[in-house]
Structure formats: structure tokens, C-alpha cells
Please model this.
Amino acid sequence: MERNPVILVHGINDTGAVFNKMATFLKKEGWSVYTLDMIPNNGDVVLENLARQVAKYISTTFAPDEPIDIVGFSMGGLISRYYIQRLGGIFRTQKFITISSPHNGTVVAYASERPGCVQMRPDSLFIKDLNSDVEMLKQLNFTSIWTPYDLMIVPPNSSVLPFGNEVIIPALTHPWILTDIRTIKTVAEALQAPLSPISANSGLPKIASE
Model:
């Protein structure tokens, strides 16, 4: 099976190195994996600016007509959504996976006045704008992975969108979900799934087992 290159988009206060365990696994399974370091990574700039860094990286790394798959962790899921929904990424992204991303905001973001953090509040204009036409993501194979024990994404089910494939990984902390082997295997399964429309409201979420 021909596989698209996979771009891994990190979250706040992280670098691409946060994906090392996942990237190593995916490479061994045959994927070409790419990470980038967004600067600054601490919320000091608006998320649109970081999404433009992602867009530039993709446009300079891959041919214009080459399809890609994207995995976004935490804030990286929102950055990836802006790239997909606002910067033309919808035309080349085929599979999109988010891991503990605050699609509907997180109340933890009220603790900071940094511009990027303010945008992750539940009532932010940024969140409202992305969710105003979130239905366009139905064009992709979309998967949301999250943990009910997340203390960074509050409430934790803010990581859920009302369509696509939802997988609950009962990791005990926000960072741990990224390195949990169940998460990594779920990402691999989602990346190798056949390209077909994923029906909305496809039943109860799957809870990953050992």
C-alpha cells in the first residue's frame, strides 16, 4: 500500500522531539515521517502564525500535488486545523489525527494572557471561527484520540469532534498519552486505514485496550 508522508505537529512548550517514540515506530512500519519545530513554542504568538510555519514547511518539503497526512498533538491539533481549514491544507491532506487537542478550548488557558493561550480558551474567537465550518473536516479521514484523565485539556472531552473516529486512551496524564504504545498503534491504524468517508456519529467511542 502506498503511504503518504506523515507530518507531526507538536504542542505548546514542545519541539518535534516530543514525537521521537512515535516517529521511530512509524518509520519502522514503513512511513516517511517529518517533524518541525515551531518558533516560538510558548504561546507568545497567535496560532495563525504557527500554522503559517507549518504551511511553509509543507510547501517547501513536498511537491505541490503530493498528498499528506497530519498528526497534531495538543495545541498542534488546532494549528493543523488552521492550516487545513484556512490555508489550503484541505486540498492535500487525506488523513488527520489529533491527540488531546482542545478543539472546543480548555479552561486551563485562562491561566495565561499569552496570545496563543488566549486563543485556546473555550470562548475565543479563534475556536469559534474554526468550529464555524468544522464540517469540512468530514472530507478527510479524521481521528480524535484523547484521555478522560487529561488535566491540560479541561474538560477532557473538548478533544472530541462530532464526527470521525474517536478513540479513548486511558493515559493518566496529558504528556503520557503521546508516548503510550496504545496511542502510537492507534495512529498507525488510522494512517493505514483505507481512504473512505467516515460517517458522522458512527456509534460509541472505542476504548483502547492493552
